[in-house]
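User: Study the fold:
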Amino acid sequence: MIPRPGRALATAALAVLLVGCGGGQGDGDAAPGRAAPATATATAAPPEQAPAKSVRPLARSVPVGLRIPAIGVDTPVMDLGLAADGTVEVPPVTDDDRAGWYRHSPTPGQTGPSVLLGHVTVGRYGDGVFRHLARLHRGDRIETRLRNGTAAEFTVTAVRTVEKADFPTDDVYGDVAGPELRLITCGGPRDGQEYRDNVVVFAELSATKGA
């Protein structure tokens, strides 16, 4: 299950809901995009930030690929929107697991927090694309490839594992002064088919290519 902002990045509302994270190991996995409201809690302190570099933001262009060398991720990126019930979509639970970009957030390299989601496990198919996300460290690089042929490179500033009940909504989805990236998956111990925690990676734009 991955918290999402409802219409936060489109309307500035910051309601917290939970959606399926592909954590189950059998056919009884929660369907992607289904959720029940959760009570918002006090937001944790903002993550420690690395010294900002002056990198010019990119024009809007949809992400089509994501590469994280430190954990061996090189994945296509699909678009995610809102399901009929108002919860955010998540990538489908299949053997061809991919990351997904929440299309109501900025595209990578634009000013604001661009949000990408991925599974830690994908039901009976095993490991998900973000299975090692929690192993990232400050200073690791993340590259997003964009549809217009440019690329936005980010540097990790913080990696946080938080209980879902204490999800730092404002830190993840709130306004920021420059281009930033958020990668979100599940983590921590499991309670039945659900993971207790979320892993959230915070990163800032550090370079652009082909711009």
